[in-house]
Design brief:
CATH superfamily of chain A: STAS domain
Oligomer: heterodimer
Helix content of chain B: 55-70%
Number of strands of chain A: 6
CATH class of chain A: Alpha Beta
Radius of gyration of chain B: 32 Å
Order of helices and strands of chain A: EEHEEHEHEH
Shape of chain A: globular
Number of domains of chain B: 3
Number of helices of chain B: 23
CATH architecture of chain A: 2-Layer Sandwich
Largest interface: A-B, 26 and 28 residues
Largest sheet of chain B: 7 strands, mixed
Structural class of chain B: alpha/beta
Distance between the termini of chain A: 31 Å
Radius of gyration of chain A: 12 Å
Strand content of chain B: 5-15%
Chain lengths: 110, 652
């Protein structure tokens, strides 16, 4: 997995590219933790280039959500591919986190 | 189908049919209603046993003997050695053996005791060492399940081999088991037997469970219900993590709904209370409408994180307004009550009031402060991270002190499969004294009953009928303590007082009872195939006080929220000290009473006040009970395997 992190005016974007599995999850968690520590608790996880996600990957997302909320920010998902969407559905995590159509839409005009 | 399985099925059917034949007669024709107080309990106990027979027959119906996986071993593996307070040397012996497992892997010592010596020893061997993270401070620790859950987030292997601190693994343990995961992508668990090296042929504490780690697990395996037993098992990380995610979502749905309902009630109440302050009243009412809307949205399937995020924003905004309102009111109040000093801080530009004034306001009946406080509490309750737990995601089940059974049942309900691989691939240490053994059995039984009460397999969604029966069967067997009391009392009451629970011990009785009894024994023999099962049979009766205590304490725990005192099984030999007579007094009392009854019965026949056949039946019955209970005396006298070996040598 390749991890791409960019910061914008109103939020930061984390883009995991490739397979987000147990071996990659710690790096994603680390990246989100760093963003929050640096004062960017509004995070969009761009899943557009994520080919596959397993439950450990989802675990990292939940960990990020927890950390972001504790820092009075939020974590939002965007642009999930079909395979990622199916995993979200299978684990019913889609009942907790919404998949926004684009990165820009994730925080809307908030 | 093998010849053995055909034979098992024939006898299984016969055992159940002869049982039904006997029990029908018992209920319909043989009850002695004059002595209903013993007759009815006895026939209920016998019905309990017939259901047990049925469940045993069902277990053996599809017994599956696997020869091994077809695929070669693949995947990355973490080996976890769980420890809490076991001696460092013991843990390290296991850890070194784990390091020597032939298949490539990483070994971790999971030290729940957080001992610096343990850390040093593990590091000296180049092994991983994991203790609880800071997240666990002041949170429920969930014993071994918590220890494993903590480690799951610090490691990344696709498969996990779990070993108790005393279970020395065979170098080939992974080679023999990993292939099952490649054979079938839905396999989440491969369990191997637990075998103890510190017990001899005699095994006075009944530690080996050859019937369970053999025919019974193979039987459960046939229904895709092989149990997870906590150690000597390989698990698929993905399956566990999936349990964790699904559990998290379910938990969050429940807690959000609960919180929102409570919020609606609270806001309605606060709005009513604050009617005299129109602005506050209106603000609270508006907020209530928002909460109701949020609840409707969650019910309709809107993502919870979105709904709670928006609602938290609204609540925070409302609180801000309320506080402002409060300050305005305060200023008015303070102006009125000249006695309370109020000043403007020259540097910060804020109002500074002394505590007395604040308290006076806060205790006022219509204080907006009270409303603000309760509303602010709502924000906190709407968190998405399970603030009451160390980890939002808990892959291993925490609803029971025996996390293994609860976890496996959860896996099965989600469509994962399990495998029982019948080959000894790890060798461990059994408790070496009666007290420790009693505590261990109590914990197992309590854990099983907790699962039964919290997550009943008979109604749990996602399980097949066979799986329901296999889980229920184990739970049912722990009710044996109540039946045992009746089985012990009935013959005593007859021998001593001549009170008969049946109308007569006649030809009718023998014609129905003997076939049932004999076929049952035969079925047992066929299933056991030469395995020694007498120890197990003895303890199943002799531990009746343990089974009863397990049932009562887990009901008290689950229904009345009383804590079970959790005990870790000692693996380092005897506790020492005096005989634990206090813990086995019910058994010793039973033995004494049975002997007195036996003597009384014989005397009564000799002086002609008792019936010969009845006395014979009951004497045999008492003799069986005594033979079973006698194991307690043997266990009391047992001084551990070392002493036992010396005694044996001295004798020969």
């Amino acid at each position: 997995m390749n991890l791409n992190v960019t910061t914008h005016a109103r939020y930061a974007v984390v883009r995991p590219e490739g397979r987000l599995t147990a071996s990659a999850a710690p790096r994603l968690k680390q990246a989100m933790r760093k963003l929050i520590e640096e004062g960017n608790p509004r995070i969009v996880v761009d899943l557009g280039q994520t080919d596959f996600i397993d439950s450990s990957g989802l675990g990292a997302l939940i960990g990020g959500l927890k950390a972001a909320r504790l820092a009075e920010g939020d974590l939002r998902l965007a642009a999930a591919s079909e395979s990622v969407q199916s995993v979200l559905k299978l684990t019913s995590l889609d009942r907790v986190l919404r998949d926004h159509p684009t990165v820009e839409a994730a925080f809307g005009d908030e | 189908m093998t010849r053995r399985l055909i034979l098992i099925r024939v006898f299984a059917v016969l055992a159940v049919l002869t049982g039904i034949n006997y029990l029908t007669w018992r209920w319909m024709e043989s009850l002695n209603w004059e002595a209903w107080w013993i007759a009815v309990p006895l026939v209920i106990a016998e019905t309990y046993s017939l259901i047990d027979t049925f469940l045993f027959a069902a277990t053996m119906w599809r017994a599956k003997e696997r020869s091994g996986p077809e695929s070669p071993p693949t995947g990355t593996v973490d080996v976890f050695i769980t420890t809490y307070n076991e001696p460092i040397a013991m843990v390290m012996a296991t850890a070194r053996a784990a390091k020597n497992i032939a298949y490539p892997h990483q070994t971790f010592v999971l030290d729940d005791g957080d001992r610096p010596e343990m850390a040093a020893a593990a590091q000296a061997e180049g092994l991983g060492y994991i203790t609880r993270s800071a997240d666990w401070t002041d949170k429920p620790r969930h014993a071994k399940a918590g220890n494993l859950n903590n480690a799951l987030f610090e490691t990344e292997g696709e498969f996990l081999l779990i070993l108790d601190a005393d279970q020395i693994p065979d170098p080939l343990i992974l080679h023999r088991t990993l292939g099952y995961f490649a054979d079938d992508e839905q396999v989440a668990l491969v369990q191997t037997p637990q075998w103890f090296i510190n017990v001899d042929e005699e095994d006075p504490l009944g530690s080996q469970a050859p019937l369970f780690y053999g025919p019974i697990q193979q039987g459960k395996d046939g229904w895709n219900a092989a149990f997870f037993c906590g150690s000597n098992a390989v698990l698929r990380r993905e399956a566990l993590m999936q349990l964790g995610i699904v559990g998290y979502v379910r938990g969050l749905q429940d807690s959000t709904q609960r919180t929102l309902r409570a919020a609606e009630r609270l806001l309605s109440r606060e709005a009513r209370r604050n009617q005299p302050i129109p602005a506050l009243h209106a603000a609270l009412k508006d907020l209530r409408v928002e909460v109701s809307r949020a609840r409707a949205e969650v019910s309709a399937g809107e993502p919870i994180a979105d709904v709670t995020y928006r609602l938290q924003g609204q609540i925070t905004e409302a609180s801000r307004l309320l506080v402002k309102n409060d300050l305005d009111l305060m200023a008015e109040d303070l102006a009125a009550i000249q006695s309370i000093p109020v000043q403007r801080d020259s540097e910060l530009g804020t109002v500074v009031i002394d505590q007395v004034g604040l308290d006076a306001l806060a205790t006022r009946e219509l204080s907006p402060l009270a409303a603000v406080k309760s509303v602010a509490a709502l924000v906190d309750a709407l968190r998405v991270d399970r603030p009451d737990e160390a980890q939002p995601i808990q892959p291993l089940a925490t609803i029971s002190v025996t996390e293994d059974m609860a976890t496996a049942m959860q896996l099965h309900s989600m469509g994962w499969r399990s495998v029982y691989h019948h080959e000894i691939l790890a060798r461990g240490l059994a408790p070496e004294d009666l007290q420790t053994m009693l505590k261990q059995r109590l914990r197992w039984a309590q854990g099983t009953m907790q699962v039964f009460l919290r997550d009943n397999p008979l109604v749990k969604r996602g399980l097949s009928t066979g799986q329901r029966l296999m889980y229920f069967g184990t739970m049912w067997s722990y009710l044996a303590g109540f039946a045992a009391i009746v089985y012990l009392c009935a013959p005593v009451i007859y021998l001593m007082f001549g009170v008969m629970p049946v109308t007569a011990w006649s030809g009718d009785f023998f014609a129905r009872f003997l076939p049932y009894f004999l076929i049952n024994q035969l079925l047992f023999l066929i299933v056991a195939r030469g395995i020694r099962t007498w120890r197990g049979q003895q303890y199943s009766l002799a531990l009746f006080p343990v089974w009863i205590r397990a049932c009562t304490s887990s009901v008290a725990n689950v229904v009345f929220k009383k804590p079970l005192s959790f005990v870790v099984t000692r693996k380092d030999g005897r506790v020492g000290g005096t005989l634990p007579l206090r813990e086995v007094w019910p058994q010793l009392t039973a033995i004494a009473v049975l002997i007195i009854a036996l003597i009384t019965g014989i005397i009564r026949v000799l002086i002609g006040t008792a019936d010969g056949t009845g006395t014979l039946v009951n004497t045999v019955w008492v003799a069986y009970s005594l033979a079973a209970l006698s194991i307690i005396i043997q266990a009391l006298r047992y001084k551990g395997p070392a002493a036992h070996a010396e005694e044996a040598e001295g004798a020969s």
